[in-house]
Amino acid sequence: MMNGSTGHRFGGRGRLRAASAALCLLTGALTATAAGGSPAAALTPPVALTADDLSTWQTNGIVWAMAAGNGVVYAGGTFSTLRPPKAAPGTSEQPAVNFAAFDAATGAPTDCSLSFTVSSGTATVRSLALSPDGETLYAGGQFGAVNGVGVSNIAAVDTATCTVRNNFKIGVSATVRGLAVTSDTVYLAGDFTTVGGQTRSHFAAVSTAGASLLPFTADADETSRAIEVTPDGQNVLLGGDFFRINGTDTHALAVVDATTGQLTKSYPGFIHEKSTVQDITTDATGFYTANEGSGGGVFDGRIALNLSNFQQRWRDTCLGATQAVEVYSGVLYSGSHAHDCASMGGFPDQPRKHLLAQSVDDPKLLPWFPDTNDGIGEPVGPRVMTQTGKGGRHYLWVGGEFTTVNSAPQQGLTRFADGPDTGAPWVPNVSLSTLTPGQVDVNWQTSFDTDDGELTYRIYKDGSNTPIHTTTGYSVFWNRPQLTWTDTDVVAGQTYSYRITASDGTNTSTKSPAQSATVTTTTEAYPARVKSDGATLYWRYDEAGATFAHDSSGSINNGFLRNAPAYRQTPAAVTGPSTAIGLNGTTQYAYSNRLHPAPARFTLETWVKTTTTRGGKIIGFGNMTQQNSTRDDKHIYMRNDGRLVFGVYSGSARTVATSAAYNDGQWHHVVATQGPLGQGMSLYVDGQLRASNILVSNNETTPGYWRVGGDDLFGWPNRPTSNFFAGQIDETAVYPTALTASQVSAHYALRNG
Fold it and tell me: What is the pTM assigned to this prediction?
């Protein structure tokens, strides 16, 4: 049943039943552009909520359940006090025993105060649902009394008076974890095996008037966690741990008749046997599941299914259990601890992200990335979502175990709205290059904004407040591609400075620090040869700071510099106006922004200078970016004794190594190639072939990222003490072919210009 003014259905967890908005596909990385683009608009459609968290009161424990309607948000869980926004734990607290009600627009508690208690053990509220008319709030969990009135794991509360309804009492034998309500029926899901003294295994239905047990029977063999009525009222969607409903195979998900409980649609083998359904929500055309798994190969993501035929519309394959889902304006918002979405074109395995958004019509991640931490309890971060409108604004509330939101202290509860958008994009990282006479290439790493993917960039020259160039680019936190604009309105021998801003259409970053470059009069021989020989990645490390390693190859294959290496180290490896980077051998490294297919043929080229006796990875190919890879090869590393090793994985670790050491504090040119059978593996140092194996022509086929200065070396021969390289690195290049010995020798010969 719908509320005509808000499109809000007062059932389940206060789900929105809105029709889908127009689909806006998440596009791939943009490449360099020299033409102006249309200015970005705040909030990239179809996202309609900002990522800016609003001031909200906090709990001192876990929020497990929420419901919302008429501008009020109800929260239940395992907590005992509330405190104001920004108040530290233990300060300015007021009692709230496992329940609180809040003004949706202010985030402050209302005067509705209820205490959910139990005579022994720990009381908890695990589910809340409003009646369609908003007059009754139903609560389920593990409790024996509400404000001293005896109940048995379920209660009905009059919302006008905030008092327990004495005409709704029925005994439920164990925890109630899910509730859904129509005008005449309350559906229950949980751990129970009896309701009202009669057998009901994990699912049941009772009347709203008098709480008499109804004939509805959908007996499950394991715990149930989610229950939702379809918008037409004809069926009920069931989710949980179960493998059978009424004796029929259907794991974790089922659709049953709303009156009888008999199966309408079963899902044997549809969800991994070690995965469960934690939550279900619907809109006008579909229903959506939040899934949690344990062990290898499980399913942790979200599934969209059509209400017309109960068949799958899409599913994503992110890893990191999903606990809550909610639809607003054609977007599925979810709470999870996703850490690896690479299998569906998202971010690679890295620290957890807890709030995501996807179109109801497409699983690709949309640019909406507020975040929490894991918090207390299990811990997994968000546990529940609900939404409501008030005062012309729409609010999404999130509850759970977290103790921070957007990196600031905030426990148990947070909320987001459909405006205003107040967060500015990150300041762009800028790097200039002057490889071609008569021009300056202005390169920058696209910025990040938590709720906008398409950003507008404006370039300012020589201190002017009028931009000389405007363009747009798409970026998300794991994919911030390089953009490049070439300034030809310059004079050879003169110096020019540039600054760039990023804007989401409403908020604009400050200008980037000024970067200066002198226009060259001649072509530098070494970089010209690297480019002409076909490099598709070429990092010269001329940046003054930040995270950007710009690509000079023309392929826009930029890198991220991690943990602030030492910038602009001199003298560099190659004569000319260029610098190197210094790495500490423990935390500092670089990785490519772009995920690459594993190359069958390749050349790795770089310059190194070190005195380390702990070895380390110099350059290689790995499947992760912000932590050590679990699949890694196509690499050059240094042993503790200074000898260099080139290795690929071809059924086993296959390596060739130099006989001499190169940790003598001098610059050395290091090149590794792999070609077809008969050419195989070759390792060159200072222009000369030092080791080879012509029989090894294959390598690991897993896609990955180029990494410089550090990555895992577990299991590789003569593994050094350190995975990370301590020393200086310069002029790193990657080629899609195996360079010849004469090409390698020519590169080395050009080191002095």
Answer: 0.92
pLDDT at residue 594 is higher than 90: yes
Q: pLDDT (tens digit, 9 = 90+) per residue, 270-293?
A: 999 999 999 999 999 999 999 999
- Burial code (b: 16+ CB inside 10 Å, e: under 16) for 263-274 equals bbbbbeebbbee
Looking at residue 85, the DSSP 8-state letter turns out to be T
585-to-194, 661, 663, 667, 722 alpha-carbon distances in Å? 62, 18, 14, 17, 7
Q: What are phi and psi of 77, to 5 degrees?
A: 175, -140
| Tokens linked to 405 | 């939101």
Q: pLDDT tens digits, residue range 637-683?
A: 999 999 999 999 999 999 999 999 999 999 999 999 999 999 999 99
Question: Minimal CA–CA distance to 417: which of 393, 384, 386?
Answer: 393
Tell me the pLDDT tens digit for each residue of 27-55: 333 333 333 344 556 788 999 999 999 99
Nearest CA-CA partner of 734 in 525, 592, 583, 616 = 592
pLDDT in tens, 503-558: 999 999 999 999 999 999 999 999 999 999 999 999 999 999 999 999 999 999 99
Please tell me the distance from the alpha carbon of residue 572 to that of residue 751, in angstroms, as a whole number: 10
Closest CA to 661 of 615, 710, 717: 615
The SS3 of residue 272 is: coil
Cβ contacts of 106 within 8 Å, gap of 6 or more: none
Rounded distance, CA 295 to CA 279, Å?
Answer: 20
Edge-to-edge, what's the strand order for the sheet holding 58-59? Answer: 58-59, 81-83, 94-95
Amino acid at residue number 396: L
Complete DSSP assignment for 597-630 = PPPSSEEEEEEEE---SS-EEEEEEES-SSS--S
Q: Would strands 312-315 and 322-328 be described as parallel, antiparallel, or unpaired?
A: unpaired
Tokens representing 417? 């709205």
Q: For residue 357, give both structure tokens.
A: 């958004």
Q: Give the model's pLDDT for residue 211.
A: 86
Q: Which residue has the tokens 């200066």?
A: 516
- Which residues face 8 on adjacent strands? 3, 16
